[in-house]
C-alpha cells in the first residue's frame, strides 16, 4: 500500500492539490485518451504520496500523546456535566496545563473546554427534542451553572435559542 498500513484508518483533510488530481483522474477515465491508464496510475501514486506526507505531518508530533489524551476524551463524553477545570484534565493525564492544552487542541482541533461544551450542546439538543423538561433543568443537567450562559452558548453554537430549537423539533399532528 505504498507506505500505508492496511489495517489503519487515516484521517487527513485533503488539499486542493489532491482534489485537483482526483478531478484529473476522473477526466482521464471519462475521455479515455491515449495512455490514459498510465496517466491515471501516475496521478494515483501522486495522490498516495501526498496523503502519506500529509498524514505523517499531521500525526507524527502528536501521535505519542493519543494514548494519554484518549481517556480524557472518553471521560468528557461520560461526565460532560461535571465542571472540571483545564488543570484537572491536565492532571488526569500527568501533563502541565499548557502542554496538555496544546496537545489536546492539536489532536481534536479545539480546546478541552470547547470540546466539552460541544458535547453538552449536543446532549441539550437531544433533551430539548425528546423531553418536556424546562430549559433551566436541561441547562443544569448538561452541566451549565447559569441558565443565561447556557442559552447564550446554545445560540452561539446552534444559531437559535433553546426555545426556538425545541419549537422547530415539535412534530405537529
Residue share in helix: over 70%
Cα end-to-end separation: 55 Å
Average pLDDT value? Answer: 86
Strand/helix succession = HHHHHHHHH
Report the biggest beta sheet as strand number plus sense, adding barrel if it closes: none
Report the portion of residues in β strands. under 5%
Count of β-strands: 0
| Radius of gyration, taken over Cα atoms and rounded to an integer in Å | 23 Å
Query: Rough shape?
Result: flat
Describe the protein's architecture and organization.
It contains nine helices and no strands. With 173 residues, it is mostly helical. Helix 6 packs across helix 9. The chain is flat.
How would the blueprint of this fold be written?
Layout: H1 16-31, H2 36-63, H3 66-78, H4 86-92, H5 97-108, H6 112-130, H7 135-141, H8 147-158, H9 162-169
Helix pairs in contact: 1-2, 4-5, 6-9
Give descriptors for this structure:
mainly alpha; 173 residues
Quick summary:
The protein has 173 residues and is mainly alpha-helical. It contains 9 helices and no strands.
